[in-house]
Amino acid sequence: MTMLNIFLLSSTSLIFIGLYGVLTRKNIVKILLSLNIIETGINLLLVAFGYVENGEVPILTSSESLKNIVNMVDPVPQALVLTSIVIGLGTTAFALGLTIRYYKTHGTLSIDASDEEEVMLNE
Amino acid sequence: MMILLASVLSILMIVAAVWVLITPNILKAIIVFAIVSLVASVLFIFMHAPDVAITEASIGAGITSAIFILSYKRISE
Amino acid sequence: MKNDKTLLMNILAIVFLALLAYFIYAVATSSDVGINLMDDNVVENRVADRYLNKNVLDENSQYEWGGKAEDSAANIVTAVLADYRLFDTSLEVIVLFVTVMGFGLVLPDERRKIKESTQLLFNWLPILMTFMLLVGGYMFINGHLSPGGGFPAGAIISTAILVGILAGKQTVSHHTLKIVEAVAGISIFSLATLGFILKGSFFINFLEGGNIGDVFSAGLIPILYTLVAFKVSAELSGVYLEFYKGGEEHDHA
Lengths: 123, 77, 253
Known about the structure:
The structure holds 3 protein chains of 3 kinds. Chain A is built from 4 helices and no strands. By secondary structure, chain A is mostly helical. Chain A has a single domain (3-52, 74-122), classed as Orthogonal Bundle (Helix Hairpins). Chain B has one domain (2-76). In chain B, helix 2 (26-46) runs antiparallel to helix 3 (50-76). Chain C is mainly α. Chains in contact: A-B, A-C, B-C. At the A-C interface, helix 1 and helix 3 of A face helix 1, helix 2, helix 3, helix 4 and helix 8 of C.
């Protein structure tokens, strides 16, 4: 069992716990929280792909750190995950705006409300 | 030693993620979700990614929960 | 009857997702197929090697501590984010802008009044805000030397404004935020166009970079990070202000 095993295990289980929540929950706020859990798990998984055992932080701090440049972890996934976190915040805010709109039109947060409306329209 | 700490933290994170799904109280679920994000930011430090850790702690744990709580307060009024 | 059916579906979902999770984990850790994460995979075999050695444009470029290099940011994540892959970052700022604008458009127009909070929070507000603004400012000024950078700095600055709202005081008006955001956004793309005019390619780092490790180094990166921090903080503060009634109400045309 190494550090990489722990990171991979925790991130994959986080992704699938979130997916289970998206599939089975009925409350929209719960579904959004599950989507955010999936996002956290995927960010952990991406950064874990760049992890190197006994690696170093990819920041040059002194002339000594230049000798350790081959030991540094991969900086590219970190930069991409930084982007992904900020965009996740934007999409979450937009989804919450839609949720408030949904509550105003349906009077409830359950996803079954739109199903019932569909049935009423078809009859 | 680091491996022990990392495994304890990941178990805490997974328990918190399950707790988010099973608790009936939405406000509690939002706050427990902040725990998931905070523990994830500690795991980012273990992965030698301090930039991502700072961003996750301030945006993922702080501002996302703040926007969730503000929206939930707006709904529950 | 209905309860039994949902229980069965839940158990099926758990079994199916656990199988999927197991296979993803097995592929990620196996040593003969897939990504081979477990066999001493070093960065030398990846694209990141060019970023770490700072020889993307010139293959024979060498550098030493305190000397000049192709990109003189000490934090290599910042070098990737704000120099080599700057198109990603600038378009990300645009995506954030569009989603926040959509949030304001979708939200129903019933705002709450900003209520005055407890006396304790109200009196401590200037001290709290000063510390938050100091931390945010430190973070974007030192983004090329230490962890941090424009996005968390913008988030922390916007949190200062959120604390102000929670304490019962609107420190910035909606109008000011819009002006800050527009000026920062236009400046980012003007700098990009200036690079095109001076050096012949979009978003090139055309300023002379100082020595690695100095505060005044890395050419354009601190300037761009400052602009990004102001833009992100204005956008996020706009999100909080959407929930509350401000003193003036001339937006929402």
